[in-house]
Amino acid sequence: MATTKSKFLKEWNTLHKNGPFPLKILYQTKLEGERVMPKKIDRYNDAAKEIQRLIKETQADGDGFRAYGSAWSMNNIASHKDRMHYNGFMNISMPIHNNDCHSNSSYDSSNLFLFECGTTIKEVSEILAENGKSLKTSGASNGQTLAGCISTGVHGSALDVGSVQDYIVGLNLIIGPNKEDIVYIERDSKPVLSNDFIKKLNARIIRDDNLFHAALVGLGGFGFIHGIVIEAEPIFLLKRYVKKINKNIAFELAKTMDFKNSTFTIPEETDVSGKGNRPYHYKIFINQYSNDPECVVELMYKKKYEEPYPDPFPVIKESLYRDLIYLFVKLAENLPKSIPWLVKRLRETIMPKVDDQTTGMLKEIFWDAPYQGPAFACSFGIDHKDAPKAMELLGKLTRDEGPIPGIFAMRFVKQSQATIAFTKFPITCMLEIDGVLWKETKKIMSLKKYSKRMIEVLKENNIPFTLHWGKNSDWTFPGLVKHMYGDQAKEWIKHRQSLLSEDMYELFSNNFLKTIGLAPKSIT
Amino acid sequence: MKHLKYVLIVFSCCVLTSCYSVRLRNVNGAPQPDPFSDRDDYYRGMAVVEFDTVISIKISSEDFTYLIKEKEACESGKINIIEYRNTFGGVLLSAITFGRKRKVKVKYVCEKLTN
Question: Among A273, A281, A301, A486, whose CB has the most other CB atoms within 10 angstroms?
Fold first, then answer.
């Protein structure tokens, strides 16, 4: 039997220390050993039973329940004041064979894999690489769990690919303590698994496009995500370049995504007529405190996997640099005018080195990002055509009303089909400011106030936006979700209510969902 | 007074230069997590095994082997990250005992079990 340890606590915190948030009990479930239960499917189903037992126990005590993975989200989306479950040890993986597929499946079965919720992106990538496959994209890092990524819409900067949830093709959810509460949801229009295989998971089959799209970015509210079926692709290499280019050219590319007709080209990345190739990844770094007419950009081009290729790993990872930034920021809390100077001095440690060139697999290019102290990140989803204007406005705000100890970056992501994905525009520019957490003083405003001002500025200037679900913001801002998603939010609530019983709807609702109005008693 | 200043400077230099950590991290595999841990350093969220001890080495021995076994904090029995720390005290101890006593300060994190 899978076993669960529980610990009585008063509070819980995220990896980046964005809390603490109240908590009563923290669970962690470990799977039965392979020696006792050799078959993966048996261990998987055994774990499902254990989760159902915990849900039953929680329900009996009138408490709420929330699963979480690597705790990388920077707000309380992963927290619950009553009980939380750490999923990290639930990491079974299974390839999907051709005879496990639905007769109408249009997928190449060699690209399909089932992963248990707590499998991290790094683990997923390694298992895929052993099979000659790769994830299509990741969140530009590898520590998050797969379930955590899709629940909050984690993205990289893959212009034509999308976010992590966009290659998910099936979801196995535990939505209550009863036998019929293990469900498997996939698109009706693109079925994946055969009924026989789904029966092996003891799951009730639901084929419904709209419900599937609502549950894809489910914010942890659609029950316990137990298994995730992904569509991988044959392994590939990414060739990464870091260049310094004129800001106007970088912004023009952001606006048009027309790499073919841009004056900026990388000689090795052009077609036969000398026109620029379209990159897989495009990212712009902006130091809002600098008047430099140029900015740093990062581009990656997809290449066929061929060995050998140069070792992409840095020789050694220094852990000192971020500690220094942290120290400087502590000083800057009392001397905010020094922040622009500090950011400028530290540019080489917080921005990639210009003219860097690396080649590697996705899993190598986006390798481990070790913990480097308390951090914040505010990230807005904006139509890429509005990106330069939004950057100008938020940069100005940060200079005029700040300074704030962080720098901006712009990443670009293809539209998602998920009902409340923040990547809702045809190409969404994720405009983000990342930095080190600071404490409010008389001279420097709080993170919440800064977040509020950013929302106000975008609204005042009629720039439609969304917010990254897993990052910092003023989530109490009135009418925020309605402003961002309109009827899509209602649609999401409706599907959640249709899937869950009344008790389970409440059990899986946390303070985050209640604060932003996504867990109402009825749809208004 | 002036001499004391120089002595302090030399002493500080010795302490600073002899205290260092070397960390080896496997590029593959994930570190074993520990959600109950509340560490606030590089190892935040990881199941860390630490030992800080003095070992005795016979004059005839050239090295010392420490066995890493499967246990709760190291379920796989395989190393993912290991950090060795050298301190001024350790250097001093080794020097005054002619290498027979060695201070060993190590942290390691095992690989998360795969399924």
Answer: A281
